[in-house]
Amino acid sequence: MSLGDSATPLGRVRGLGSAREGGEHWLTERVTSVALLLLGTWLIASLLFLPDLGRQTMIEWLRAPSGAVPMALLIIVGFRHALDGMKVVVDDYVHEEGSRFAVNTLLLFLAVGGGALALYALAQIAFGAVA
Amino acid sequence: MAATNSRPLSPHLTIWRWGPHMVVSILHRASGVALSIAGLAILAWWLLALAQGAEAYTRFAEVGMSPIGLFVLIGLTWAFFQHLLSGIRHLVMDTGAAFELDTNKRFAILTIVGSLVLTAALWVYILGGRA
């Protein structure tokens, strides 16, 4: 069977088996979503139960382990889940391979950079570097 | 790729009669993108403002409570609840359940009603006695 230019995309890959990757991405998206179900609910509930939304109250809240640790997890898991989800959107709509690689790489940098920035700010608060 | 251009694509948005399941599917994607970009940017900005000092935090709070700020924050709250509820729907469907037309439709409508009710309840609580 010749598979030249006339073959459809489906025809070209039929019989080759699975891509042998992608399953981990799919599963990670689900596992992080369950974690965010808990962490997101925690964030909303915490903000509701704080006596006020002033800066000193917030800092005290994030200085305690019960605030700082879930917030760190929320940042890490949130940026990871966002990156995994945005990749699905990009893979769906950006068809040209070079552009797709470029956009996905840009998103990776933004997610890691943004997450690092948020963690740095949280560390400053949690470890008492701000008054 | 020459062969692909002239071949028919599978029917897309423009051809199907709209139903709750389609609305929820697109809302899930749109809310995910909104949370990934605006939601995480605001999370990082909020933590940075907290860490930076009283002035930076006052500025953050002022922008947040301005009409545009409130519009964005309420919109993101709605995106969060919609994404959370339709995310739960996706997890249920990942197990192979809730594909029956009636169940599927009811579940889809429930996520829309639920996200609107939760968003309204949260902001009535915030704007009515607490802020």
Overall number of domains of chain A: 1
CATH superfamily of chain B: Fumarate reductase/succinate dehydrogenase, transmembrane subunit
Looking at the structure, what is the overall shape of chain A? elongated
Q: Largest interface by residue count?
A: A-B, 36 and 33 residues
| Mean of pLDDT of chain A | 92
Word description of this protein:
The complex is a heterodimer of chains A (131) and B (131). The model of chain A has no long low-confidence stretch (mean pLDDT 92). Chain A has five helices and no strands. Chain A is mainly α. Chain A has a single domain (31-126), classed as Up-down Bundle (3 helical TM bundles of succinate and fumarate reductases). The longest helix of chain A is centred in the C-terminal third of the chain and has 30 residues, at 97-126. Helix content of chain A is 76%, strand content 0%. Chain B has one domain: 3 helical TM bundles of succinate and fumarate reductases, CATH 1.20.1300.10. The N and C termini of chain B lie far apart (58 Å). By secondary structure, chain B is mainly alpha-helical. Chain B has helices spanning 2-5, 20-52, 54-65, 67-94, 101-130. Chain B contains five helices and no strands. The mean pLDDT of chain B is 90. The interface between A and B is medium-sized, with 36 and 33 residues.
